[in-house]
Design brief:
This protein is mainly α and about 70 residues long. About 60% of the residues lie in helices and about 0% in strands. The N and C termini lie close together (about 10 Å).
Length: about 70
């Protein structure tokens, strides 16, 4: 799951793959602002065939949060 999330992050928002860890903070470590977060959620929805609500998106702080959310939807 983490590997696929990494692929989406690298492709969608051009993040250096080496910076992507489970503990990485989306805003502070990866530089994802609100606009990039929306773009990322769209890419994740497509890649994982899920729906991410705005409320869920707002709660995502780390890469681990993304993985947990996606695992709960699989």
């Amino acid at each position: 799951m983490l590997e696929k999330v990494k692929e989406v992050l690298v492709e969608a928002i051009n993040v250096d793959e080496d910076m992507i860890t489970m503990e990485a903070n989306l805003k502070d470590d990866l530089g994802i602002d609100s606009l990039a977060a929306v773009e990322l959620s769209l890419e994740l929805e497509t890649a994982f065939d899920v729906r991410i609500d705005d409320e869920e998106l707002e709660k995502l702080v780390t890469v681990a949060d993304i993985v947990k959310l996606l695992e709960s939807k699989q």
